[in-house]
Amino acid sequence: MLQAGQSAPEFSLPDADMETFVLKSLRGKQHAVLFFYPRDDTPYCTLEAIDFSDREDEFTRSGCVILGVSRDDCLSHAEFRDKHGLSVRLLADMEGEVSRKYGVSQMREKDGAKKLCIVRSTFVIDSLGVVRHALYDIKPRGHVAEILQLVKQLEMPCKLSKTLS
What we know:
5 helices; disordered C terminus
């Protein structure tokens, strides 16, 4: 499992529009909130994605981009986005490689068979590519407000240094 202070694993994944997103493209420019969720269009995943979308402007003002990741494919992401009017970028980790890098994959038994599942988790990554916060097995209600407060703390040192100049 990733911990605060570690470098965020680099990756590139397709989004709902089949355009490739590369994490490294944010380096030196923006912070990132990377939220992993189990499946498109399930109740808690929908709640979380809508909440992030509703507050996306606040994250943007704090110099942060929001990225949702699941093992669903691009078409599923596009349908999920369009059905619920989501504005956050949804990334398809179909092979589960990025989920493994971030330590959010877990084998669970369901109906007598073991299945690889994603543990609902969120990572706040600063503009230097360092994981500042790693939250695993989160509960969606109130989670986005908590993450927004963590992101706002990231911009404080920049504002402070500007006022001291």
